[in-house]
Write a structure and sequence with these properties.
Strand content: under 5%
Number of helices: 4
Keywords: Membrane, Transmembrane, Transmembrane helix
Radius of gyration: 31 Å
Protein name: Transmembrane protein
Order of helices and strands: HHHH
Number of domains: 2
Structural class: mainly alpha
Distance between the termini: 55 Å
Organism: Lysobacter gummosus
Length: 119
């Protein structure tokens, strides 16, 4: 508002220019820009707020990626075993990936079941 008052003061100081049309149009433009900014900000915040469905989809993608990683690790370990290398120390990695994938599945179930109305 200080900028609007400064512009209005300059408009009043100019000879032959009335302050009312200048300041009212400037104030109107300022209000329109402010309202548009507030609407844009609110819609951005609504868009950025993760919904349960988006959280569940992200957890599902992460769980699937962990299952794929576990399969790749097992394939690599099998190839190492066939070449004669000892794989006993690395056998826990695929199990760990599958356990984490199961935790993601449980998270998805909890997120989706919270929305189910209880009878």
């Amino acid at each position: 508002m200080a900028g609007v008052n400064a512009v209005a003061a300059v408009a009043v100081a100019l000879p032959g220019v009335t302050a009312a049309p200048w300041s009212s149009w400037l104030l109107f433009g300022f209000l329109i820009v402010t309202i548009a900014g507030a609407v844009a900000g609110c819609s951005y915040l609504a868009w950025r707020t993760p919904t349960r469905e988006r959280l569940a989809q992200r957890a599902d993608r992460n769980g699937r990626a962990l299952l794929e990683l576990a399969d790749e690790i097992e394939e690599h370990l099998l190839m190492q075993q066939l070449s004669g290398a000892s794989i006993q120390a690395q056998r826990h990695w695929p199990r760990l990936c599958r356990r984490l994938a199961m935790e993601h599945l449980e998270c998805i179930n909890r997120l989706m079941l919270e929305n189910v109305p209880r009878e």
